[in-house]
Amino acid sequence: MRTSVAIIGAGPSGLLLGQLLYRHGIDAVIIEHRSAEHVLSRIRAGVLESGTVALLHEAGVGERLARKGLVHHGIKIGDQNALHRIDLTHYSQGRHVTVYGQTEVTRDLMEARTAWGGVSFYDASDVAIHEPDSTSPYVTFVHEGGEVRIDCDYVAGCDGAHGVSRRSIPAERLSVFEHTYPFGWLGVLSETPPIDDELIYARHEQGFALCSMRSMTLSRYYIQAPRDENPEDWSDDRFWSALSARLPESAVRALTTDPSLEKSLAPLRSSVTEPMQYGRLFLVGDAAHIVPPTGAKGLSLAAGDVSVLARVLAGLYHQGRQELLQAYTPTCLERVWKSVRFSWWMTHLLHSFPEEDGFTRRIKAAELKYTLESVAGRTALAENYVGSPLADVTG
Ligand code: APR
Ligand code: PHB
Cα(232) to centroid of ligand 2, in Å? Predict the structure, then answer.
């Protein structure tokens, strides 16, 4: 079998790339090692930057997003018992974010791909990338008991943090910059109306808490917890009382605590792999970088890479612009490091670190106060949270 671009992974990165390439008239095949049902069962974050929303519209999958996505013009920050609102739109020259679950984005992309008959192999095992540094790379895998080989011009590694793409690049050709945080987030999904009509990020001496939502009837809550905590040790009652203790009282009054639908722990880390390409293999989204969820940047960073790669490939195929190949890594990394910095900063500002001394705690409390009280501080938070427009690599 032959295609122009072999896409490894059917998460949001791989599916969105497949959709944009289709619109550019470039042939691609998706190879995913899990089932479609499994991919759709994963619960992930739910905040989209405007640039990501625009890209989903450009990809032709914006219809349900436009109907069901919740436009948010502000966020709230809890600081001990006080609740502050940051008017995102006011402090970012009119921009906003859209609350829409990543699982829904994935579903919309999958349905669109099925509708036009895009070729995808789910449940593929032993996926291997061969000769990515040559002009004729190929991918092999086992599907329904038979070995499949796909010859291609380029490989897009959209296979997340634990995929095969990054491992297919010689280690000495990559630098990995990593930072781990000494805690995770314990998350709960519950069929209850959200506590507030906006997200609440709360700093508290007992630890960070976040109140988010998927819709006006489905809430998503998180609390900071030790990295090795077992979610099964957390009864619903224990979770709700830990959450309530960390939120300002004025917010807790509106908390509805029904049984949880799901409970899971995610460790927090930051990681960036450089460069994001090797020969004709490109690393995209989580395959290249991980951010802690505090800044809500994971999906929009992935969308940024996809946007750049789709334009690079369109320029190559339609205009023969070979020089664009070299632009992928630097264009993506500039945006990536800004979001890595912002996510790291928000994580430090709002979490309690186990070894934190009294001096550091007071410095952070003062920094949060400055951020909330000054125009410069609010502007810096709002601009970073809503994100910047996607880069045009072809310009
Ligand atoms: N072969 C084929 N597919 C693979 C392999 C492999 N060896 N390893 C992993 N995959 C698949 C996974 O099953 C998954 O469906 O690649 C896909 C990667 O998807 P994601 O992990 O969702 O990564 P990405 O598409 O880049 O999405 C980034 O997801 O984790 C969040 O915060 C992140 O919001 C961001 C978004
Ligand atoms: C979520 O809704 O899951 C969510 C929202 C905002 C974040 C992280 C996660 O910063």
Answer: 22
